[in-house]
Structures are given as C-alpha cells and as structure tokens.
Amino acid sequence: MSPLTDDLGKTGLTVAGMLAALRAGQTSSVELTRACLERIDQLDAELGAFLTRTPELALSTAQAADKRWAEWRKDRAIPHAPLLGIPLAIKDLLCLKDVRLTCGSRILDDFIAPYTATAVQRLLDAGMVPLGKTNTDEFAMGSTTENSAYQVTRNPWCLERVPGGSSGGSAAAVAGFLAPAAIGTDTGGSVRQPAAFCGVTGLKPTYGRVSRYGLVAFGSSLDSVGMLCRSAEDIALVFPHMAGVDMLDATSQDMPLPEIRLNETRGLKGLRIGVPSEYFIAGMDAEVETTVRAAIAVLQGLGAQVIEISLPHTEYALPVYYLVAPAEASANLARYDGVRYGMRVGGRSPEETLLSMFEKTRGAGFGAEVKRRIMLGTYALSAGYYDAYYGQAQKVRTLIKSDFDQAFTQVDLIAAPVAPNTAFKFGEHRDDPLAMYLEDVFTLPANLAGVPALAFPAGFNRDGMPVGMQLMGPHFREDMLLRAAHAYQQVTDWHTRVPEGIPEGPIPRAGTKQTQAG
Ligand code: GLN
Predict the structure, then answer these.
(1) 29 given a catalytic annotation
(2) Which of 153, 215, 361, 396 can bridge 145 by disulfide, Cβ–Cβ 3.0-4.6 Å?
(3) Contact 156, 204 (CB under 8 A)
(4) Is 349 a catalytic residue?
(5) Which among 27-41, 261-275, 490-504 has the top mean pLDDT?
(6) What number does the ligand 1 atom closest to the CA of 140 have?
(7) What's the start-to-end Cα distance of the chain, in Å?
(8) Angle at CA 472, nearest 5°, toward 437 and 158?
C-alpha cells in the first residue's frame, strides 16, 4: 500500500468497503459523498475527469440515503436498497434528467437531458448518489479523451499521459479516487482501454445485457453500457443492478444473470482459459506481452487450464469495425441538425435555406474526428458502395462472431491484452488517425461478436504505467469473468496500488483543445 492511502481518507474505500462502513454505522453517505466532492474540488482542475458536477443533487440524495439507513438501523427487517448511499460518476453520454448532457460535443453545449437513462435510473433506484458527468471523446469517438471539445483529462498515474478513451473521464475519476464507481460505455473498447490505461477494473457487458435507453447512440449494434471500479468484487456488487431487460430498448435481453459466486473456494480448478495467438503480435509493446503472459501464469497457478487457441479472423476486426461503427454513427448523428437538438448556427436571414443552416450548424458543432467518421460512414453506405463496404463488413463480422462461438466450444474464457501499448503521451497519435485506430485491435472483436469482456490491471511497466489484461467470455457469462478476475485479485495487489503522481499543488496544463470548427 502506498503512503498516499492514508491521505485518501474515506475516498480510499472501495464500494464493498463503503457498504460495510455504512452498514456498521461507521460512516454516513453524506460523509462519503462530501469526501468525494472535496477530492474532486482539490484535484479535478488538474485531472479534468468531470465535465459537470452535481454537488447539490449528490448531497440531497446522500441525505435521503442516510435517512433510509437510519430507518434500517431501527428495524433491520426493512430491506435497504442494495447500494444505498454509494457515490457514482456517470459518463456524459448518458442522460441524467435536468442535468447538462454534452457527449463531449459543442453541438450539445447547452442541452439539458429531458429524462434519465435506464442504466442510470436503475443505479439511482439501487441507492447510488450521482456526483456528476465525466469527460469523453466527442460522441465516444476516440481512444484518448483528447477528442472532447471541452477539456483534457489526465492519467492519474502520469499527468503527461492520456487516460485512454473514450470513457477517460470515468477511468481517471476511479483511478484518482474521485469516485469509487463510474458508468462508462464501450462500442469498441471505451470501457476496457481506459480501465487498462488507468489501472482500474472495467466491464463491457454482453450486448443486450444493459439497456441503451438514454445512452446517446454511436454504433447501435455495438454500443454497450459498462462499469468501472477499483476491483472485480466492486463491479460484481454494482453491475447486476444496472443490468436487465427494458421495455424501452428492444435489443435488451431477458436473460437471467447467473449468481456471481466470488468466493468459491476451489480456485479456478476446471476452468479452461484460451490464449489466442492472434492477440500477441509483432509491433506490440514487449512489456505488455510479458506482463499479460505472467498474469495468465497466475491464473494457471490458481488451477485454470491454459490452452492455446486461434481466433483466425481477428485481423479483420479493425477494418470491419471502422466500416460498421462509422456507418451507424453517420445515421445516428443525422439528428443533430440545429432543429431538434442543441446548437443552431444561422437560419435567421431570408436568403438562408434549411440546407445552409444544417451545414453551418454541423460544420461548427462537430469536431474533426466526428466529421471524419460521418464522411467515412456516409461513403460506406452510399449507393454503389454499400455492398462492397457495409455489406461485406457485415459478412466478415459474422465470421468474427463464429470464431468466438467455435472457441467457446473448447474453452470457458479467453485471456488477452487489452491494448498493444500502455498509456501514451498527449498528442502522440493526434495527427495520425490510422495509428490511433490500430490501438483498438484487441478490444474491437468482443464488440463485433457481442460477447462480454472484463479488463483489469495485470502489472506495471518500467515507467510505472499500468498494464491491463482482459478476459472475454461467452454471451451472458459476465459472472465467469468476474469470478476469475476476483480470484486473480485475491492473490495479486496491482488493483490496490495508488497513483503517487497526483500532485498537491498546481501543475502546468497541457492546454485545452477546442473542437475544430468549419
Ligand atoms: N476507440 C474506438 C473508436 O474510436 C472505440 C470507441 C468506443 O468504444 N466508444 O471508435
């Protein structure tokens, strides 16, 4: 444990620790919430994890939670909400009623959410306390959070480096002990890659496990709402309350969540873990490879049987994703037209046409990466090219999915690195979109196949940056991922390390990047 742990006070507690302290009457939700809000006040000018803070809402929710805890203390027969009084950060891509929702975009600069997303509402119903909305790449398009139109988010392990993305604000908030739990979203890796870069644990659930209602759509056939915490145990406590079928999302599934038996005593005996050769490739960081292989050896030491497998179509995941996701995004983002949502530019003079108002609004409102995706997607869907690009990509997507189906007849879980590299410095890939897209090679396949995947820290590199690994499982078996990661976290302490780079005083800022207009 780092000496910083002492200074963390109540924010140093995990979700499990907070719940135990609340139950024992050793703390109150107001105390926990204040501790988080104070730490946000202290550190977020440097970290930049939050876009919007909701301190009044947080404190009034925490007060109500404490009232309910007091009632429970008087009569323990009254069941209390399962996560009563636990603070939560929410990625600014999900609606929270009456609170600003930007999606990291200028086009939604002054947009107020008219309702609450189902995933958020379920956690509020379970008793959680909303601290605020976290920074994201614009409309979740990116891998560094640098594409946010508003601010830079820094990696708590090294302030010169990116936190990953697009859920970089959520990952930095959890890693920096600003919140014990945060909602993220994962369309192509946006929960897992920032979790890996920031040394926290992040779950991308099965497609359809969590409702997408109130999540702003990016790639509708890929989008999933996930969870970031500091341990698999904490995710096992929080995630089930967010999951489940929802009348308001026709793609959500009515599948029971198997009981998450974290404390099974037989270790991982009998568990077959596949290691796909395609996930250890030339050009990846050698330290990532050795760290992940060492972690797999730990799982083996816990009784798992490790089997070399092949997912032969892995190399096509990147081109398939970068056709399917932009195609869906180009259709989804058509709604930002200056008429129905957010910002409007022009449209007031008599010479102006509707079309010129659309052009001006979208030209000024969207940043460079979003425009690139809209162009790629529109092109892939255009008449004459549809079959050659989008149609073909869908066929190859089916092959990628059948790789997983095939693998899961042989093994129970698949272990792999989350990303080929650890967190890079600001600006490293900013001017080379292809190099940036290549960073997603190991996370995209799970989204294309719709399978669940869990990222967690497997060690640190020579520079002291976290290295993440992921476990992927069959559809709807999040329970197996969490059990295996928990077993790993029982015998390792990577997930309990505290970043010591968080400074007390002000540090030089990298400068705020503005969305490129026009
Ligand atoms: N980095 C990927 C992209 O830019 C994935 C983003 C995500 O999962 N939201 O599309």
Answers:
(1) no
(2) 153
(3) no
(4) no
(5) 27-41
(6) 9
(7) 50
(8) 50
Cα Rg for the chain, rounded, in angstroms?
Answer: 22
Q: At 21, which helix (H) or strand (E)?
A: helix 15-23
> Which whole number is the average pLDDT over 421-437?
90
- Of 28, 148, 166, 170, the catalytic one is 166
Per-residue CA distances from 206 to 194, 308, 488 (Å): 18, 24, 22
* 119 contacts 215 by C-beta, under 8 angstroms: yes
Neighbours of 294 (CB within 10 A): 14
State CA 33 to chain mean position distance. Answer: 22
Residue whose token pair is 């930002």: 336
Residue 40's contacts (CB-CB under 8 Å, 6 or more residues apart) are 49, 50, 53, 131, 132, 178
- pLDDT tens-digit series, residues 434-451: 889 999 999 999 999 999
pLDDT per residue as tens digits for the range 240-254: 999 999 999 999 999
Q: Could you tell me the distance, in angstroms and rounded to a whole number, from the CA of residue 140 to the centre of ligand 1?
A: 6
Residue 95's SS3 state is: coil
Q: Name residues whose C-beta falls within 8 Å of residue 54's C-beta, 6 or more positions apart in sequence.
A: 96, 99, 130, 131, 132, 133
Closest CA to 323 of 399, 270, 375: 375
- Supply the DSSP string of 474-491, one letter for each residue: STT-HHHHHHHHHHHHHH
Q: Can you spell out the DSSP letters for 239-282?
A: GGGT-S-BTTBTT----------TT-TTTTTT-EEEEEGGGS-T
Phi and psi at residue 249, to the nearest 5°: -135, 105
What pLDDT, in 10s, does the model give residues 395-406?
A: 999 999 999 999
**Which residues have C-beta within 8 Å of that of residue 89, sequence separation ≥ 6?**
49, 50, 130, 131, 132, 133, 134, 169, 170, 173, 174, 178, 179, 181, 182, 183
Q: Is 269 a catalytic residue?
A: no
How is residue 220 written in tokens?
């509708």
Residue 329 carries which DSSP code? Answer: H
Q: Which amino acid is it at 305?
A: Q
**CB-based contact 127:90 (threshold 8 Å):** no
Nearest residue to 181 via CA among 9, 15, 12: 15
- For 304, the token pair is 């798992």
